[in-house]
Amino acid sequence: LPISGTLLARFNTGTFRGKRGATLTVVIDRPRFSEVRLRVDGYIRSDMVFDPGAIEFGAIEQAQAATSVSEVSYAGRRDWKIVDVRSNLPWLAPQFAEVSRGNGRANYEISVTVGEEAPIGFFQDELVVQTNDRGMPTVPLRVNGEVKSALTISPQAIALGKVKRSEEHTSE
After folding, report:
1. Which pTM was predicted?
2. How far apart are the first and last CA of the chain?
3. If you write DSSP's letter for every residue of 140-159 in order, what string do you get?
4. pLDDT digits (tens, 9 = 90+) for 48-98
5. Nearest one of 87, 60, 83, 82 to 143, comparing CA atoms
């Protein structure tokens, strides 16, 4: 049987700025000993902050549109702006709007709508926030959630045994 798990790695954003990277070594001891090296790279910036830092929808009912929001605060260049926000998923629709600007600060709101046509199951994507910053023009914003089926069947499988044509059977 396949074994799965989760690994959470965090950058120390309070200490470092700019481009950073690290190699993580994951040691697996069962069923057989193995090592895997994972390379993680990122760019830590202090001039742009998402609040919250990711858009987390939680559970969404199938065929029901849902919208969530993240606020973006920027401090730096007076002419800085968000020029586009894109998604890789056709049923995930981001929009953005400038909320305020002044004294080298800009505030935006990014809203994301999960469309009615979203497939059932877990999803995770990164929106691409495109800015006019020449040094770091694109910034990722994580989006995740789960689309739940409006219909659930329990038990998922039933066994009726041999059934003859035109014969009724019930399962309890």
Report:
1. 0.68
2. 30
3. EEEEEEEEEPS---SSS---
4. 889 998 999 999 998 888 999 999 999 998 999 999 999 999 999 999 999
5. 87
